[in-house]
Amino acid sequence: MRSIAVASGKGGTGKTTVAVNLARVMPGPVSVMDCDVEEPNVHLFLSTESRQTHSVGIPVPRIDTNKCTVCGECARFCEFNALGDMRSKIVVFNELCHGCGGCTRVCPENAITEVQRVIGEVDQGVSAQDIRVITGRLNVGEALSPPVIRAVRRYKAEGMVIVDAPPGTACPFAAAVRGSDLVVLVTEPTPFGIHDLGLAAETLDAMKLPFGVVINRSGEGDEGVEEVCRRHGVPLLARIPEDRRIAEAYSRGELVVDALPQYREEFLKLYRSITDMLNPNGDES
Amino acid sequence: MKVLITAEGKDLDAAVDPRFGRAAYFLVVDVEKTEILQVVDNGAGRAAAQGAGVQAAQTAAGLGVNGLLTGHCGPKAFSALQAAGVKIYTGATGTVREAVDQFRKGELTAADGADVRGHW
């Protein structure tokens, strides 16, 4: 199993468009992991009829008040203020807990056990195009997406995996791209797009992950993107032109390569460039 | 009675900080004498990534105050303070001295729930 993460610093640049169309033109077996768990949308383009779902939880502390001496060690340890030492008792705020398990370990009385709190789910099924789709969903009102993203990424899939990452450059982004063989950064050639591409590129350099760039809505402003590529020594893998028909197909939930076959070649070129980056010596592995 | 008052400065003429968890300073005040007993810098609470209200409630519990005079109080801070037996008086305005006066005249009533949502 090899994986390619499709990511971007700025939101709305076309990550999902690139991910699903790339999956469509690749030889199988291929899977798409939707790691944009706050608003997963891959299923709009690759719908699956029957799905298997399992819930994702994080361990949160439960304090046995018969054993607890209110020494406060747990509250002092918790960086996230999920536990508060109120002198007469310890209060627990599960929604602030990141599930690190530290309080359980530092408690000298062994008064803390861990219970699972469900924060989201992962489902998987196979689309009509014979693409396996694994989708993570963070429950509404929850703030901590990385555990759900990691649960999606733990899924074992055959062949090539395309990961649709959440936007930004913070923890959810890192959780989605970590462990990938290659990252494709999608950008638009606008000042915002170019600025956030720079941030994403710096993050990937720090994570020591190889990456290339795709310009979406290519046309005016491409030089700025090319400059970022030069600065980071990474290739420009493809350009998807500014074309209203692409946006119209997207709005109907259609794949660009099916609705507008003239763009199939650009996605095939992207696939070939990715294959070249993954196999620099030309060997198939 | 010993209360904690959230303030933007360190003395009685400082403005009341309307926030609890992310207040600049916590002043421990003897309300009968209108006298500051202790000043606590809440720099750590202001910088907390999350749960500033819980952290502040823990500080209040540790200082052994009986009441809190502040502008607003969110739900987590409220339930934490309740566990510590600290009464919460929201709606304090003006300077710390004025808040003490408001309290002594009975103009501030003990809250029976959070008056704002978290992150207001």
Describe the structure.
The complex is a heterodimer of chains A (285) and B (120). Chain A has 2 domains: 2-46 and 127-278, Rossmann fold (3-Layer(aba) Sandwich); 58-118, 2-Layer Sandwich (Alpha-Beta Plaits). Chain A has 10 helices and 11 strands. Chain A has helices at 15-25, 73-77, 102-106, 146-153, 171-177, 191-206, 222-232, 244-251, 256-259, 264-278, and strands at 2-7, 30-34, 52-63, 83-85, 90-92, 112-126, 132-138, 160-164, 182-187, 211-218, 236-241. In chain A, helix 7 links the parallel strand 10 (211-218) and strand 11. Chain B is built from 4 helices and 5 strands; from the N terminus they run βββααβαβα. Chain B has helices spanning 43-47, 52-63, 75-83, 96-104; strands at residues 2-7, 25-30, 35-41, 67-69, 87-89. Chain B is globular and about 35 Å long. The termini of chain B are far apart. The model of chain B has no long low-confidence stretch (mean pLDDT 95). The chains are: A alpha/beta (285), B alpha/beta (120).
Quick overview:
The complex is a heterodimer of chains A (285) and B (120). By secondary structure, chain A is α/β, with parallel strands linked by helices. In chain A, 32% of the residues lie in helices and 27% in strands.
Low-pLDDT runs of chain B: none
Low-confidence stretches of chain A: none
User: What is the CATH C level class of chain B, in words?
Assistant: Alpha Beta
- Order of strands in the sheet with most strands of chain B: 3-2-1-4-5
Q: How many domains would you count in the coordinates of chain A?
A: 2
Biggest chain contact: A-B, 14 and 18 residues
Helical amount of chain B: 25-40%
Which class best fits the helix and strand makeup of chain B? alpha/beta
Radius of gyration of chain A: 22 Å
Tell me the radius of gyration of chain B. Answer: 12 Å
Estimate the mean pLDDT confidence of chain A.
Answer: 95
